[in-house]
Amino acid sequence: MYNDLQDALGYRTDQNAPFNPVYSVGSATTPFQVSSLPIDPSAPPPTGAKLVPGGVQPDMKTPTLISWSLRVQQEVSPNTSLTVGYVGSHGYHELIGIDANEPFPVICPASPCPATYPNVPTLGALAGAPVPAGAFYVPTTTRANPTIANTWTWFSLGTSNYNALQVDVNRRFSHGLSLRGVYTWSKALDDGDSLNATAAPNAPGLVSNPFDLHADYGLATYDVRHIGVISAVYTLPFGKGQPLANSLEGWSNALVSGWSVNSIVTIQSGFPFTPQLSYNPSNNGDTRNPVRPFVNPAFTGSVILGKPSQWFNPNAFLAPPAGSGFYGNLGRDTLIGPGLATWDFSAFKTTNLRERLALQFRAEIFNLLNRANFNTPNLITFTSSTSSTKVSGTAGAITSTSTTSRQVQFGLKLIW
Amino acid sequence: MDPYSSDILTLREQVFSLDETHSFSASTVNVARVGYSRAGYFFTGLPTPGTPAATVAGFLLGHQVGAVVVGGSAASNPQAAIGLAGSNNGSNLRIARNLFTFEDRVTMTRGRHQLTFGAWFQPFQSNETIALSQYGQLTFSSLSNFLQGSASSFLWDPAPTEMNWRSLFGAWYVSDVIRIAPRLTLSLGFRDEFTSPPTMPSSCLSRASDWPGVRSRKRP
User: Fold this and answer.
1) In Å, how far are A73, A170, A255 from A78, measured between CA atoms?
2) Structural domain of residue B191, as residue ranges?
3) How far apart are CA A196 and CA A199, in angstroms?
4) Residues 6+ positions from A128 with CB-CB distance below 8 Å
5) Which distant-in-sequence residues (6+ apart) come within 8 Å of A393 by Cβ?
6) How far apart are CA A392 and CA B95, in angstroms?
7) Looking at residue A88, what is its pLDDT?
């Protein structure tokens, strides 16, 4: 129903005057001094403070998804089936986050776009290089509506495309063994899906350049190229009624019968992510910093280093100078983060106490191999102070894992 | 992990439903259902009690200290080069939601047809305080700016307000499953859903019928 859509709208529209006005003070050129704190919230906002409106597109459309699929299932043995399928979808009118109060840019070489990029050392091979035709340049920091701050507005302008090959091998329970393996090879593309930074921290929640939405079309933040899962349940063949040790009686039978082991192995490739800047060089005033760096044309070698201390090489990128008015030309979600592999294992022992009463002992181990599955690296590649722009010391550093370390738990379950 | 800040999350859910199935005849069955669901959500980030952070003065008079971002953006839960002090600027967030469900469905079998029709209504109440930046957020573009106390932005909500949304969801539907041949059935159906414009009875906003983009009706 509309509940989900309304919830989303409520979240975005709640952050508005007169009920929940949010104010912003300070900018890259006129910093806010911490010595001015604390602020009395019951007093009028200080000079220079501006409202930060939230909201949605006035004529928003209902997000729509058209999907199609084709599956073929074949019996490969009396207990085993093979399913191969294709799934595709196309979404439109999807919600994307836009700062709707930015200064108007020009498209180079229109005036006043400079003929060349700034000739500064931090721009490396692009220093003094000609600005390509079609690049966007923001000549002023004056917003379209200078009386309010930047906005976070949802527009139903997003599109998405998804294509997947799915393979499913399923062996139904037979001779104590049930086995299933599924694999998906897929690609998901869109021009924005992280409606806020909480939803998908691997990319900014806002469009980089609201006047060039197509520049953000790339891998979706939830795109996973490969994912395979194998699950198995095996009842050990010991005890009465089983092929082995079936002549045992009493305690010895109770001890060896009723055992089963279970496994789930998951292997998947990493999520895409977007290197970011800690500042906004484009003059567009968006304080959420969705602008990306330049691709360094002089860089050779592998961008992905694959080390937890530095997952990607920041030298592959160049920092647009603060206040230069330019957007970087790196695509959205162009790098791939660490993959994931985990093996969960469990053993169950079920002992029948009476005809309709059984006791089950469970030993469960999550992440059996204690593999460190690393999270998305730190995306902030460049920082800027009032005097300089430099590579962040934590660019590409991974500081967390996406799964827990090995967890072991035991349980007793009474079944009747 | 930042030992000086803590997150507290509380979730609660209660569900009650009652079904009554009545057979009018061998070919006509009526199912009536009433339901009630109540969900509660609370999240806050706060300086860890017992640590020096708990005594730091707030950014806003009368409030605890807010969030600090060094080398990142002014978004909530942003990426940051150095790190975050405080998990994010979404603190003291509360939602209490009630859903009342009423549904009646009739299924009739006539020859090769199985006809189903019914209606579904769900009054919706959401009492929520989800204003961000209640304690303020300072954002610094670099470590040196942080050390100099020069923030690129300070965000705050001076007067968070509880919102009391009310709305009515509804639907009516009809479908027919036709057994055309022993191994072939045809299903035809229509479902119409609507959402009333949200209102807020406890405030001056009595009717949010001009909520931008809210389509009050759809036919999937």
Assistant:
1) 13, 11, 33
2) 5-218
3) 6
4) A116, A117, A118, A119
5) B81
6) 38
7) 96
**Reduced DSSP (H G I as helix, E B as strand, rest coil) percent helix, strand, coil of chain B, to 5:** 5, 60, 35
CA distances B52 to A35, A412, B147, Å, are 20, 43, 19
Calpha distance A267→A340 (Å, rounded): 6
Contact indicator for B167, B209 with CB cutoff of 8 Å:
no
**Alpha carbons within 13 A on the beta-carbon side of A353:** 9
The first and second tokens of residue A150, run together, are: 């930047």
Mean pLDDT throughout A342-369?
95
Candidates B69, B154, B162, B163, partner chain A, best to mutate (most A CBs within 10 A)? B154
The pair of three-digit structure tokens given for residue A22, joined into one six-digit string:
């949010």
Alpha-carbon dihedral of residues B49, B53, B56, B58, nearest 10 degrees? Answer: -80
| CB contact A375 to B (< 8 Å) | no
**Residue from A114, A101, A80, A93 nearest A5 by CA:** A93
Note whether A123 and A58 are within 8 A (CB): no
Q: Tell me, what's the ipTM?
A: 0.80
**Residue numbers of A between 184 and 203 with CB closer than 8 Å to B:** 196-198, 201
Model pTM score: 0.84
Report how many domains make up chain B.
Answer: 1
Closest CA to A294 of A73, A167, A159, A129: A129
pLDDT, tens only, A196-221: 666 677 888 899 999 999 999 999 99
CA quadruple B19, B20, B21, B25: dihedral, nearest 10: -160
Element (H, E) at A342: strand A340-354
Contact list, A61 vs chain B (CB under 8 Å): 213, 215
Tell me what pLDDT residue B212 has. 41
